[in-house]
Amino acid sequence: MELYHSLPFFCFLLGKCYKKGLKGKGFGLLIKIACTVLASFLLCWLPFFTEKEHALQVLRRLFPIDRGLFEDKVANVWCSINVFLKIKDILPRHIQLAISFCLTFLSLLPACIKLTLQPSSKGFRFTLVSCALSFFLFSFQVHEKSILLVSLPVCLVLNEIPFMSTWFLLVSTFSMLPLLLKDGLFLSSVVTVAAFSVACATFFPMLEGISEDQLHLKPFAASVRRHLPGFTFLPRIIQYLFLSSVITMVLLTILSVTLNPPQKLPDLFSVLVCFVSCINFIFFLVYFNIVIMWDSKNGGNRKKIT
Predict the structure, then answer these.
(1) Considering the domain boundaries, does residue 10 fall inside one?
(2) Which of 33, 142, 220, 239 is within CB 3.0–4.6 Å of 294 for a Cys-Cys bond?
(3) Which domain holds residue 174?
(4) What is the pTM for the complete model shown?
């Protein structure tokens, strides 16, 4: 789970070291960072080196391969695909692990490469979101509450993209609905979400005046318009998707609370919640990667574009 946020840190620092290396200072800085990381790692592991079994137990906790591709109803790609294709029953464990690793690595690679080549504070914040979301969607054995590790960096960009960040945080809470109901926290979550929504609507421009620039999609839209001059409806599409997402979440929440699922499909509502949330998260992964790639590519010309 630590990789959720450590990889963007590594790419950002590596990019900074590379830039300083052009001035003859990068190699020494890189050595200092490497020594600090190794010393911290050894210090954390020191209590577990006393016995081999202790170290192995920690590794089993960090990498729970024996527990399978997924366990409970979690809003990631594997649980959603399992509705149509029983991957856990068809593919051997090592093949599942390899596919999970490859898709996770490929999904986070573009953002990490951009951050390494063009390190910036804004790129770092958005890459934190993108990498965490990639791990949540594609990695092996993810817990429902792991979406909170994605929500944390999303809060860092709340002021920059309030509309999309608020939407994401609403979906992340909704994705944990089966867990909240199971733990008796539904009423508390409703009150908290309502207070959060009111606060965001009060302090941030939400539905009024949503534009390509406010969504950080102006460079992307400008690139598309070179081939499709009539491509001017992107903000409207985003608003329609938002309304559809909220309506779907509200309806599923009401159904989950008021109705009992059919006896033949006892997990119907839980699976629907996970599936709908997963579709939303895939959309957000694409969105954040578009923002990262086009902002990095056109960062030097952003003033001219806007």
Answers:
(1) yes
(2) 220
(3) 3-34+68-305
(4) 0.87
